[in-house]
Automatic annotation (TrEMBL):
Belongs to the OSBP family. GO terms for cellular component: cytosol; nuclear membrane; perinuclear endoplasmic reticulum; plasma membrane. One of its GO terms (molecular function) is cholesterol binding. GO terms for biological process: intermembrane lipid transfer. Keywords: Lipid transport, Lipid-binding, Transport. It comes from Bambusicola thoracicus (Chinese bamboo-partridge). This is Oxysterol-binding protein. It comes from the Eukaryota. Transmembrane segments: none annotated. Pfam families: Oxysterol_BP. InterPro entries: OSBP_sf, Oxysterol-bd, Oxysterol-bd_CS.
């Protein structure tokens, strides 16, 4: 039940962000998030450009979380459908349980004109690779054309034989409940900060992610997202400078790619490695070097590509 709530909660922040275009990470770009106050640390890296793949890994005393993000796009004229490929993983060290699940299809409506809105639909299957006693199915319902049923999720925890053990229902942007209606609240989305419409629909947590303190600047690799000048200019409201820097960053990436192709060099991810299972399915996992390098000798001694 709790893992299901966690899987659903990942979609809540998208509700307010349908109108904003995200920054595309460049190949080799990284991001760390160290939060002793929340008891976890996180690292991500853009490990592939074609196709675009972002890999991430988070850890704490209570959990280890990892996934790689890739997707296929389908443009339907007025809407853009994003079909994710890959698996989300959570391992709980105390019990040894390892949960894995897929992500659902996302659709952004009114891409070209009108108010944009976002929808998620499809089925999530959560299974415990260590113990098959229970599994969970969650359905993200497609809104009916008159708007009823928007953002609804329905699910069940099932025994090995398929008997329903727990029923789940709610809305992915509001909360999830267990049991017969009105049900017991398992998870509820935090309220949005003031002026969130003006601030790209960011949650309070997202607003904190781009902060760059002098202490942090000293320990970050030169590839960290906080050091992206286009993103920083946009945050400061300087749209013209942000646009100019964005074009320069994209040109630098094209130049690096051309040089690598001319010299027959293949890009190697720095902090993640690629795995292939017996069925040929690809995944990316940490190579456990980031935090060691950050400590000693530090990233200042590391030869990194100039991304911006």
């Amino acid at each position: 039940v709790y893992v299901a709530a966690f899987a659903v909660s990942a979609y809540a922040s998208t509700f307010y962000r349908a109108g904003s275009k995200p920054f595309n990470p460049v190949l080799g770009e990284t991001y760390e998030c160290v939060r002793p106050d929340r008891g976890f640390r996180f690292i991500s890296e853009q490990v592939s450009h074609h196709p675009p793949i972002s890999a991430c890994h988070a850890e704490s005393d209570n959990f280890v979380f990892w996934q790689d993000m890739r997707w296929k796009n389908k443009f339907w004229g007025k809407s853009l459908e994003i079909v994710p490929v890959g698996t989300v993983n959570v391992r709980l060290p105390r019990s040894g349980d390892h949960f894995e699940w897929n992500k659902v299809t996302t659709c952004i409506h009114n891409v070209l004109s009108g108010p944009r809105w976002i929808e998620h639909y499809g089925e999530v299957l959560i299974r415990n690779t260590r113990d098959a006693s229970y599994h969970c199915k969650i359905t993200f319902c497609k809104a009916r054309y008159w708007g009823a049923g928007a953002n609804e999720v329905q699910g069940a925890v099932l025994s090995r034989s398929g008997a329903v053990v727990e029923r789940l229902a709610g809305k992915w942007h509001e909360g999830l409940f267990r049991g017969p209606a009105p049900g017991q609240c398992v998870w509820r989305a935090n309220s949005m900060p003031p002026d969130h419409e003006r601030n790209y629909g960011f949650t309070q947590f997202a607003l904190e992610l781009n902060e760059l303190t002098p202490e942090l600047r000293r320990v970050l690799p030169s590839t960290d997202t906080r050091l992206r000048p286009d993103q920083r200019y946009l945050e400061e409201g300087n749209v013209a400078a942000a646009e100019a820097q964005k074009r320069q960053i994209e040109q630098l990436q094209r130049d690096r790619r051309r040089v690598m192709e001319e010299n027959n060099i293949t890009h190697q991810a720095r902090f993640f490695r690629r795995l292939m299972d017996a069925s040929g399915k690809e995944s990316w996992v940490t190579n456990n070097t980031y935090w060691k390098l950050r400590l000693d000798p530090g990233f200042a001694h590391l030869d990194s590509a100039v991304l911006w």
